[in-house]
Amino acid sequence: MAIALALIVAMLVTGGVWLLLRPRSWSVVLGLTMLGYAVNFFILLAGRIGSRQPPLALEGAGALADPLPQALVLTAIVIGLGMTAFLVALALRGVAARGADTDDADRIGEGPVDDDDADMAA
Amino acid sequence: MSLLPVLPILLPFGAATIMLLLGPGRLATQRVLALGAGLGGLMVAAALLAGADAGVISAYRLGDWPAPYGIVMVVDRLAAMMLMLVAVLALGALLMAMGGSDAERPDGRGRHFHALFQLQLAGLAGAFLTGDLFNLFVFFEILLLASYALMMHGPAPAEAARVRAGLIYVVLNLVGSSLFLLALALTYASLGTLNLADVARLLAVLPADDVAMARTAMALMAAVFLLKAAVLPMSLWLPQVYARAPAAAAALFVILTKVGIIMLLRLAVTGWGDSIATAGLLQPWLPVLALGTITLGTIGAFAARRLAEVAAWLVLVSSGTLLFALGFLTPRGTAALLYYLPQSTLFCAALFLLAGHVAARRGALGDRLGRGPAASGRRWLLPAWGVAAVGLAGLPPLAGFLGKLMMLQAVGTGGWQGPWWGVLLLSSLGVLLVLSRATGPLFWQANEVPLDNRAALAGVAGVAPQMGLWLLLAAGVAMTVWAAPMSGFAGRTAEQLFERRAYQAAVLGDVPVQRERRP
Lengths: 122, 519
Fold this sequence. Notes:
The structure holds 2 protein chains of 2 kinds. Chain A is mainly α. Chain A has 4 helices and no strands. The longest helix of chain A is centred in the C-terminal third of the chain and has 32 residues, at 67-98. Chain A is elongated and about 65 Å long. The model of chain A is unreliable at 104-122 (pLDDT under 50). Chain B has one domain (4-508). Helices cover 72% and strands 2% of the residues of chain B. Chain B contains 21 helices and 2 strands. Chain B has helices at 7-22, 27-52, 77-97, 106-109, 113-129, 133-151, 159-191, 196-204, 211-228, 237-244, 247-272, 286-303, 307-327, 331-361, 378-393, 399-411, 417-444, 454-457, 463-481, 483-498, 500-508, and strands at 58-61, 72-75. Chain B has a two-stranded antiparallel sheet with strand order 1-2. In chain B, helix 1 packs antiparallel against helix 5, helix 7 runs antiparallel to helix 9 (211-228) and helix 10 crosses helix 13. The longest helix of chain B is centred in the middle third of the chain and has 33 residues, at 159-191.
């Protein structure tokens, strides 16, 4: 069980990192989302595996699940959603400003300096 | 409990909420609110500073929950000092944002500039005050999200380059946030707490089984703070982002690297203590990386083509200098760090504002370090430039020199003295060369502004932006004039920081809550 869960986190992280390193902003957004899933899952696992009890101190109930990781994960999900929304908006603005999805792989020679010159001409 | 410790967060947060409720387009109201909140923040910070300097660590428990369970806001000397610095910096940056005509003023380009600015202040205050690591993450996200948006308020022509720099900045910080969350999960899994004082207490008595996990968690967290501080392998994102942001926002961003440094200081000194789980996490390599960061920043400043880029590279030099002093984790080194930090922040921020002033006065040439018309209005810009340059290069008589001297004394006669003296003095010389080289093209050439650029010149017209610049410079110079009380305060702050028991007692109470160990 523990190994399977660890493998799921590992796979999500691997996919996330690979997508992050792609030169297109859309892949990067997807990669960050995937990384976010991995991290959220990981936080949930920090509250120990296999506790299926509710996180409530009910009378008569024996064990109870740790409520804190669940609260943390909720917060992290909300923040992650907001960040992803902002990132998508920013990437779209980049597309609008450049007329193409960010593809820095073939633009290495064009540093910010060239943009400065373009600004001056404009 | 007095509400005072949470006021630095509530005040800007409330101001931002009112601004958003009022709706966009009420710039005059927004400005009055922003200035009011800024002055209020200054007064609250002064009150907190006066209270904290009496040596009492006051903890505010949200909802009155006992400490390891609820969230605590802790005001000690370090937090109060940083709040004061944020308040002064914020006033300077706000004044800069308020000048000029409709088209050019930064707060006129976006409808919510002031609300975002206040939210960033709330995030900064929260990060310095909170005594809970997860809460720190939340405040980090608040201030980062505000900074992402503030960064986009630059002039329209450079839009494409700014968006690209912004994307890199956002993606990098989101990866940092993911690492931060992983570190928090590991901390919770190994220690069962996220309260810094509780972490410190439990790290000291950690069973050998949990050492590996706790060590991993702490190393990850340190890496996240070092990313914010832009230390060497993770520093190349900073210059292009800061140089692309509008001057008023960039001036405020200078403190963002300092947030990373102060948080690392707090984590390493208050949290780690002498625990075996964290022994040797910073000690051998942080000073080396810090020296590398100083070198990189100095070389970068030579290669910079715009004044704002020079300022951005100098932020790296400042970061490296502070991290070097931090790397030794001694009270004397920390005292030197705490004396050096405020004036370094103020002069770096002043240089960003100065770059904004110069850019608005040279038309299409902007703040490029090339031949062209000198900045008009240099009668008052040139003295400001002189003060900022002397402060940044760390020349006597200004406080940067005293701070570096304190650091050199704190390093003592260990093996690091040779490289430290060499790198620091050469870097000072390099900064001085860069800044004096820039003086000619920026200020001493023919004072002609082409006619078609009169509109741009209006960008920083009015008294407010000049007041902002001079406020930061005056605060930096005040660090020199009152050097004895300031360095005394820095010493007391460092002492307090190293008294870990007092911090734990203030946050957790004298008898910490006992908990069962989890399976």
